[in-house]
Each structure stands twice: as C-alpha cells, then as structure tokens.
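By way of example, we now present a protein record of this kind:
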Amino acid sequence: MKKKTEETIFALSTPYGQSAIAVVRISGNMSKMIAKSICQINKIEPRKATFTKFYDKQKKIIDSGIMIFFNSPFSFTGEDMLELQCHGGISIINKMLLELSLIENCRYASPGEFSRRAFANKKNDLIHYEGLANLIASETENQRIIATKQSFGESENIYRTWRESLLESIALLDAAIDFSDENETFSLKKVEKSLNGVVKKATNTIELAKNNQEILFGTKVLIFGPPNSGKSSLFNLLSREDRAITSDEAGTTTDQNSNVLEISGIRTVITDTAGLRNASRNVEKIGVDFAVKAGNDSVMNVSKLTDGDLCSTVFDATGNKLALESGPDYVSHGGTFVLVGLFNGELTYTHPSIHAKEMSLMCSRNATLDDFKYVMSVIHKFPTESFITHDVPFGDMISNFEEWINPDSGVIKATVSF
C-alpha cells in the first residue's frame, strides 16, 4: 500500500449544484497519467489550456471542456496538478468524480488537503493559508479586506518586525553580560526603548485583533422582550422584507426567526424570538421556551442562546428600573451595556457585577455629534413610518394618552400632529 502522501487526490473546486461550469482539481504524481486517460491525449503540455473531450473507462464521452496540466513544482500544491473544467450539470459532476474514484491510488481529498500539501511543500506559510480560508469564507467587504491582508503578507511583516527587534535586544543583552569586564559600554536605554515599542505595537495589534474577530466571524443580535412590543416589526424592518408575521394579537411569533445581514460591513445574524409571557397556547409555550424564559433563569437562557458567551452589547430602551438594573447580568466579559431608556430616579448597580466583567457602561447621551449624524443617515435609509402605529392631532392627545400606555393597545410609537 502506498503512503498517504503518495496518493493522488481530487476534489470539486466549485460548489456542488447546477451551474454553467464545474472545476475538478487533481493533485499527485498520477495527474499526468489521469489527463492522458480521461482526455485520450498522448502529449500533455504544461500550463496550456486545451479544449478536449472527457471519456470514461469504456471510452464513452462524458462531456467536453478545458484541461490544464501544471507540472511540479509550478503548481498550487507543489505537486503535479490537473484541472478539468466541464459543464456544471449534476449528472456530469457525479460521473466525473465517479470515474476518478475508480482509479487505483486516487481518492477524494480531505477538507483543506490541497492547502496542507502546499504547506508541506513550502509553497507558503500557515498565516497565508489561514487567510486564504478566511478569504474564501468572506461574506462582507470588511471580511474580504482583512483576509486579503492576512493572505498576502501584511500580518507576516508585522511579526517579522517584532522578531527582528527582539533578536537585536537579546544580542545586546547577551553582549552586555558576556563582556561586562572588558570596559565595553552598552546602551540599555536602547534595549528598553525597543522592547517598549514592541509591547506597545503588540498591545495595539491585540486590540485590533479583537475588532477583526467580530468582523471575521460576525456578531449575533437577539431581539427579545414582551409580546406586541415591536420585535417582529423591527426584525422585518432590518431584514427589509416581511420575514416574520406581525399582527395586533399578542403571541403571534411562536418560533425563532433568523436572518443574516451585512450591517456597517459586519456579518450580523439577527434573531427574532417569541414574546416573553406566561403563554396559554402550547405552541406559544414552546416558542417562549426556545426564546428566553422570564424569571430567575433568564440569564442562563440567554447564555444558552449565545453559546455561553452572553451578549457583547446590550441596549435597554425599556426605561424600567428592574430591567435597567438587571441589564449587566446579560453582558459578556468586556462587553457594553447601553442605557437608551430614561428612568426618572436612582439606579443601583453592584460594583463587582460590572468590575469583574470589565464592562463599559454607556448612556445614549454619551454619543458625539458625529454619532448622531451617522444614526440619522442610517435612519433615513429605513421606512420609519412602519413604526408609527398611532397618530392623533394635538387636541386629541390627552384623551388618547391612557390608551397608549396600555400594552394591549399594541402601540410601538405614537406621534402628535400639529
């Protein structure tokens, strides 16, 4: 039996499904033989696109397309490689893969195996291939920018600079120790300045990495609260389509609805949940259980929904004393609690609950003029009229006020016309 590294591997490089073109890649020392067999061509010229027919073992035509052979070491993996471009019909793809699997010592590639072989053949370093994986998985422009920098050497250059500074400092310190009795003078201030510079740059890079993590892996937004408070309306508004059913009847949402959006360049998964209340219908009870149960276990339920991370940012617009004071319990380590709602009284927070999490506490009026301008520019993009559920003339405001403060009225935003 041949060693695993001597096996020839193949994989579909384009998504499996109906398309105009499908690309199958083969890597290993049998690539050239496979090209001759499946294309029925005796002379194979490296790095030349050749229009040809593809044949099965019975020499019956499977399809026609483009064949390109890359000879070692001038290929992605550093091995002999073959690229077959056929039409993207599912039956054609299945047949091409089947024919390759029937060849002895030729097998399906494991996930990432092409890159692993390229790394083993020293075609590039691990940072490059990690960046390449992030680039392929990128969904937003910011994800693409970060992955591109990682793939094409900008991250590597930072580490090399740090390494050179550390090696130079080590050399100076070694010399100062070894030749201390030879009246040589060494500037330890230079070493101190160099090391402080590395620490400062590393600290900045760590902070940048935290922001990049959010961009690369996205963020989750969970919308939860009492029934008929506008959760599904907000979800539909952000989604820019009616993905959730809305009505005046409390308990309309009985399950979780999720949508993936790009918000300010960040991949964001927004989830709408069932309203929190003691539901009477069984189907609504199940939906509430899947959301966040009101009561002592609510923090635990949020933890489950966020894979144990809790929420990086919590916005409280309730203006309710109990909700405002319990808000920090839902915030993750290093997260932010933003008080949007106004409570006309004193709020009390235990210092350990905030300090232990290294949490930031913000009020909406902490925003700068630029922040308000940005928010206004974003608001103008959305049909805010859909949030205005009640509108009355100025003269009718007092008579309607009692109805507005009743949750059963379904009010989300009430306006007064002058």
